[in-house]
Amino acid sequence: MPFQWKSYIFLSIITVFYLCGCYAPPTFKPVTTMKPPKKLEPYIISQLNRYYVRDWKYVVIHHSASDSGSAAEFDKYHREKRGWENGLGYHFVIGNGNGSSNGQIEIGNRWINQLDGAHAGVQEYNHYGIGICLVGNFNDSNPTAAQMASLSMLVEYLQDRCRIPSENIIMHRHFRQTECPGRNFPYYKLLAHTVRY
């Protein structure tokens, strides 16, 4: 009987401390300055999950090399100036607040219809690579925190859905003579949050 009372008193004290705010859970300190991703917006997940996916092997990261833009603007440019029948060369565009919302993930026609990209300049990476373009010129500035959070979440989703290993999350400049996605793109911070297969 005395043991039960002691247990009851002990649990009561712990409960009071917890409810009164004396308990503080341990704080999480990420390894990098980029906040770990939470979850994609339910709307984006429902949109992404609507489409059958084919045999993708890579995720290829780009920047627009422009201060502003959106999927619609790039689509128009790619149709009218480049003459690409399927328009927007990327599968996804992530806005910076100048043309589309900061961190907004825009799903392109090539993802919806599971078409080859026109972003890589190399057939292997156009056919097997999912092109993601972040709006901005990352030779002159950095991606926004919202862009990087969205990119991290999107890459994690694509890795899981398409079984893409971390070593296949690449930048455009890995296989082309280009600076894309810019000297200031935090590639290794992104890789720190990718899924390991």
Q: Could you explain how this protein is built, in words?
A:
By secondary structure, the protein is an alpha/beta fold. The chain has one domain: Peptidoglycan recognition protein-like (Lysozyme-like, 3-Layer(aba) Sandwich), CATH 3.40.80.10. The chain has seven helices and five strands. The protein has a five-stranded mixed sheet with strand order 3-2-4-1-5. The radius of gyration is 22 Å and the shape is globular.
The outline comes out as globular
CATH topology tier name? Lysozyme-like
CATH superfamily, please? Peptidoglycan recognition protein-like
Structural class: alpha/beta
Order of neighbouring strands in the sheet with most strands: 3-2-4-1-5
Number of domains: 1
State the end-to-end CA separation.
Answer: 54 Å
Give the rounded overall mean pLDDT: 82
**CATH class division:** Alpha Beta
Radius of gyration: 22 Å
How many extended strands?
A: 5
Do you know the CATH architecture?
3-Layer(aba) Sandwich
Strand content: 5-15%
Low-confidence stretches are: 5-37
Oligomer: single chain
- The helix tally amounts to 7
Question: Order of SSEs, N→C?
Answer: HHEHEEHHEHEH
Helix content: 25-40%
Largest sheet: 5 strands, mixed
Write the layout of secondary structure elements.
Blueprint: H1 2-19, H2 42-49, E1 58-63, H3 71-80, E2 92-94, E3 105-107, H4 109-112, H5 123-128, E4 129-134, H6 145-162, E5 169-171, H7 187-191
Parallel strand pairs: 1-4, 1-5, 2-4
Antiparallel strand pairs: 2-3
